[in-house]
Design a protein that fits this description.
The chain is an alpha+beta fold. It is built from three helices and 24 strands. Strand 9 and strand 10 form a beta hairpin.
Amino acid sequence: MQISLGYSCICGNAGMGLSVQLTAVIFILVLVSTHQPIEGAGHDPLLVVDDYEDDGIRLKCFSERLFSQVQMLWTDSRGDNITGTPLTTGTSTANVSSSIILKPGSGNSVSCKIIDKLLKTSTESSVVIADVFFPATSPWMAAFVVILLLSVFLVVAAFYKLRVNNKATTRALNAQKDIQQDINVLNHQLDERQKNFQKETEDAMDKIEKTRNELEFWKARSNAVNITLDQKYKHPSLCINEEKNRVKSSVQKENALKMMVAATEGFSENEHYWEVEVGDQSEWELGVVSEEIRNALISGTVNSLPGESLLSLQFSQGKYVLTDEENVRNCKQCSVVGVFLDQKRKKLSFYDVEEKSSLGSIYYNLSGKLYPFFSPGSDGKWLGVRPVKTLNLLPSL
């Protein structure tokens, strides 16, 4: 006898879970008898769907027996023998059993045959199981698993990419920070170098200016001449020491007329230089005057002197003032003043002899002879002409 276990046996719904199928199948027993049992004979084999195993269905075949010599054979739908498990004998009942695992696609029909060697009889039972009862993975489940794996992969890849990007971003930010620090350091170094360069440039310009002034000073000093104070051409309030060639005021107040003394020597051409020791006097005035003013000093009756015929540098109240009323700035009080008359360029220059620097210059349009003059302050201190040795060559700087 053959019983077919088909799709219609259990709900006919492929969407049911494997557990429902297994439950339905396990409780299906296939029992076929070719004859009624009689004394001295056994029952037909009992086929039992046992469980799912190794992607297939395990089938067990049971047979009660009254004699000991029994043989059990498994055959497929084509009649070919199938190897089952060895026969096992029950401990409580007189029965034998064997089992096989039916794989999907190997033929859904299987038979179990019992051969009694003593009675020389055989009984057989068979069962047909539809494909739906075999364990199989749903296409949707496979797609779900694939999608899930892809999703997990994408999440992991995205996380890895994000982590890599974060590291790259961090490195980029650190690199940008380092670059900015390097830029700041370079800018600071550049500012320092610019300041140093500017200072060096200013120092170099000052040195050049100082060197230029020294060159001009030594050039002017190379034209040194002897100057003599003239007793005839002086203010009556002045006292002259002819031996030391110096002059001072005998009164303690300033008259309307400048108290001055002119030199014997007058110059109408070429270049001439002389030096005057002013010491620490609080006020004095040096320069040149025209011959007209020099002659007016003889009588002492002139009430004022024409400014256009007098060129001078005046020191008073701690300041230097030129005839054109231009202040000489950033000049400390000096003790020796050099006077340089350049008739070729029509220029009168004054120098601080100790510093070898210029105190100021005046350009003029006077003609005729110009005479050096000296005007001490009213504090009674001496002002004298200092002799200068003529130098034919400039000293090395």
